[in-house]
Amino acid sequence: MMQRMRSWREAAERFDERRRREHLAPRLESRSRDLASLRLAIEEFHDGTRTGSVKHVRHVVVASAPALFALPCGDASCEGGGYDVTRPVMRALRGHTERFEADARCAGTTGGVPCRRMLHVVGTATYRP
Ligand SMILES: [Zn+2]
Predict the structure, then answer these.
(1) What spacing in Å lies between the alpha carbon of 31 and ligand 1's midpoint?
(2) Could you tell me the pTM of the whole model?
(3) Of 91, 82, 112, nearest to 21 (Cα)?
């Protein structure tokens, strides 16, 4: 029970921290003025085995999104985890790349050992002429 409450609080704190960082980040529109649309196909999986693969697609609202691409780790027992693909995504957008890929490894720990989850992102972007 205590364990459960602790992780709930940590999850809430992580959520607040993420919201705070998103709020402080520059707007995507200000960093990539001619970006018209951005879609990220996100796949999270366990490294090596590719088991537990979870996929989802995020349609980024260019007009209001922050220039921050940080995602939480999908493993509920992971502590201090998460991914940040801001750098490769922003680099691709600055270069007007229409299709790009980025990988990230979770930086957290599960049960005292490094989390072995990884993230693979395939981005599709369109730009105004
Ligand atoms: Zn993790």
Answers:
(1) 29
(2) 0.82
(3) 82
